[in-house]
Automatic annotation (TrEMBL):
Name listed for the protein in its UniProt record: YozA
Keywords associated with the record: DNA-binding, Transcription, Transcription regulation
Keyword Transcription regulation appears in the UniProt entry: yes
Gene3D superfamilies on file: Winged helix-like DNA-binding domain superfamily/Winged helix DNA-binding domain (1.10.10.10)
MF (Gene Ontology): DNA binding; DNA-binding transcription factor activity
Domain HTH arsR-type: 13-106
């Protein structure tokens, strides 16, 4: 009888899920994107603030934020002509926080 019970995650991953998971790990494999996400843990920031605090070019920040936004890892709100970015996926943020803690736990 026990053999008939199927594990909840035992089914094969579909192509869309595989793509999203691989793209998420791709997003988290880039040091600049990790730095941006780490800064956004602390709260909402504009593109200019991110560029200034991380000593990056505004064009670099915008490019990386676009990548992260396409994966729904960050979201933005507009105030006048300024875009303010914040984290948009607690699951991925928790994963990144735990990985940072792991790296700091010698």
């Amino acid at each position: 009888m026990e053999k008939d019970k199927q594990q909840p995650n035992a089914k094969e991953l579909d192509e869309e899920t595989l793509f999203i998971v691989s793209q998420t790990f791709k997003a988290l494999s880039d040091p600049t994107r990790i730095r941006i996400l780490h800064l956004l843990f602390q709260g909402e920031h504009s593109v200019n603030e991110i560029a200034e605090k991380l000593s990056l070019l505004q064009s670099t920040v915008s490019h990386q934020l676009r990548f992260l936004k396409n994966l729904r890892l960050v979201k933005f709100r507009r105030e006048g002509t300024t875009l303010f970015y914040s984290c948009d996926d607690e699951h991925v943020m928790d994963l990144l926080k735990q990985t940072i803690e792991h790296a700091n736990h010698h």
